[in-house]
Amino acid sequence: MKFILKHCHLEKEYTDCIIVGIFESLQLSRSANYLDSSSNGYITSLLKLGDIKGNIGETIMFYNIPNVTAQRVLLIGLGKKNTITQSNLNLIIKKTITFLKKTSIKNFICSLDEINIENNHHTYWLIRTIVLGIQSSLYQISKINQTTKKHINFDLITLNILKKNDLYLGEIALKHALAINLGITSTKNISNLPPNICTPLYLSNQAKKLADKYSDNIVVDVIDIKEMKKLKMNAYIAVGGSSKNQPFMSVIKYSGNNNINNITIALVGKGVTFDSGGISIKPSTNMHEMKYDMSGAAAVYGTLIMAAELQLPLKIIGILSGCENILSSNAFRPGDVLKTMSGKTVEILNTDAEGRLVLCDTLTYVERFSPNLVIDIATLTGACVVALGECVSGFFANDEELSKQLQHASKETDDKIWRLPLLKEYETNLYSSIADLSNIGNSKAGAITAACFLSNFTKQYKWAHLDIAGTAWESGKDKGSTGRPVELLCQFLLNQSKISY
Ligand code: BES
Ligand code: MN
Ligand code: ZN
């Protein structure tokens, strides 16, 4: 499937279909209007039949349009003019692709360049959103060992650019979109794998492959349990050490060719390949979804792919904290006291609060790279899902500037986050009579308590924490990874690289 950008003469193009928009109350977009005039009012004459109003996502197909060489014209409802948000546009693209998938169309021209996106209104954002939207609507989970693959794809998608001067912006947008899409797709693919395939070792092997593919810019170190022991990562080992699938921490070091600002950014992902809860075992209903407990690591992996594809001028340390939280006679227990890599001791009150244990040692480990800022991404708490539901990720920061930068990237990409407070008032929740900290609080404010726990280990740098427990995957019979928050992280990095638009 190929994308190209072109300044089209719409009536003269040979293609299976041209996609143009219609706003509410039957107002034709510029491109639609143009085709209507070329065909001496053919489109408006048929609109009088009343089959479409222009509401978001409505579709109607026209055939045999006089004086138009394309085989078909698809009119897609855009809703109210001038109030199209990024998420409306995503919906419009989704509806369009769902419709096209049912046809035999193999190539089409998308002429929606006249849409004004609220906030981000120019060609860069339009093209990027359209390309990412098309790709995400076409994403399919690959079934394990499936012999016949019936993946629906198009051959050629042409994006019409109305103003010739905007072609260069479109080209940049397309390049960025393809790299971001590769990141998102890689994240989804690895997250969707079953936990008997996607083990900590598997994660580390995928990380190593990045060093082969992007050998100019990426070096990967894999820390196994032996090395973890030397490093005194006892909290990480307590969680991961009881599984036959031993823990592996993959350290992906990306170094761009011209690191303009000499900035080092660390991204740390929770990579629990299966979370049974351990001795504090989870209820069996939906426990299978805990294969997605490595979504943070998968997001870091995907984001580094984007960075390498675009050769971002930054230094990025991406860490996949891979391990499995499962039972054996070797399992850690409620009551155990662990000495973390930082030297702080933790009393375990619940072995299901394992993510923070794996992360606290990784967050101490990352100090050796003297990062300017660290972002961890984790499916950390069910409480975050209770608080924010499934469309917004929870987020915390110990630095105002970093917080603003993340919120800005979130607004630009429509990958939604909401800041929750990191106040010292919550710290008493983690009191332990026998250790420096306990690993859970009382039953209230669970997402904040978890972030508070982590904040004890992030004093050396600017830090933000994204709790993606509600946003990383969709449940139900068609369960699957959403690829979030890869676009947000990519945008944050593009902004840091000062190559954003
Ligand atoms: N991986 C889970 C969090 C989770 C739960 C993510 C449901 C997505 C959906 C995490 O390791 C966990 O089990 N957290 C516990 C913490 C509790 C024991 C303090 C939770 O949220 O119940
Ligand atoms: Mn857990
Ligand atoms: Zn977990």
Automatic annotation (TrEMBL):
Q: Which domain of life is it from?
A: Bacteria
**Any one Gene Ontology molecular-function term assigned to this protein's record:** metalloaminopeptidase activity
| Active site residues per record | K282, R356
Reaction equation(s) it catalyzes = Release of an N-terminal amino acid, preferentially leucine, but not glutamic or aspartic acids; Release of an N-terminal amino acid, Xaa-|-Yaa-, in which Xaa is preferably Leu, but may be other amino acids including Pro although not Arg or Lys, and Yaa may be Pro. Amino acid amides and methyl esters are also readily hydrolyzed, but rates on arylamides are exceedingly low
- Which top EC class applies here? hydrolase
Listed GO cellular component terms? cytoplasm
Q: Which CDD domains match?
A: Peptidase_M17 (cd00433)
Boundaries of each Cytosol aminopeptidase domain copy? 350-357
* Keywords associated with the record: Aminopeptidase, Cytoplasm, Hydrolase, Manganese, Metal-binding, Protease
The residues the record assigns to binding Mn(2+) 1 are: D275, D352, E354
Enzyme Commission number(s) of this protein: 3.4.11.1, 3.4.11.10
Q: Which residues bind Mn(2+) 2?
A: K270, D275, D293, E354
Free-text comment on the cofactor:
Binds 2 manganese ions per subunit.
Q: Where in the cell is it found?
A: Cytoplasm
Would I find Cell membrane among this entry's keywords? no
Which residues constitute the signal peptide according to the record? none
Known cofactor(s): Mn(2+)
Biological process, per Gene Ontology:
proteolysis
- Principal localization? cytoplasm
What function does this protein fulfil?
Presumably involved in the processing and regular turnover of intracellular proteins. Catalyzes the removal of unsubstituted N-terminal amino acids from various peptides.
As for family, the record states:
Belongs to the peptidase M17 family.
Protein name, UniProt field = Probable cytosol aminopeptidase
Q: What is the lineage of its organism?
A: Bacteria, Pseudomonadati, Pseudomonadota, Gammaproteobacteria, Enterobacterales
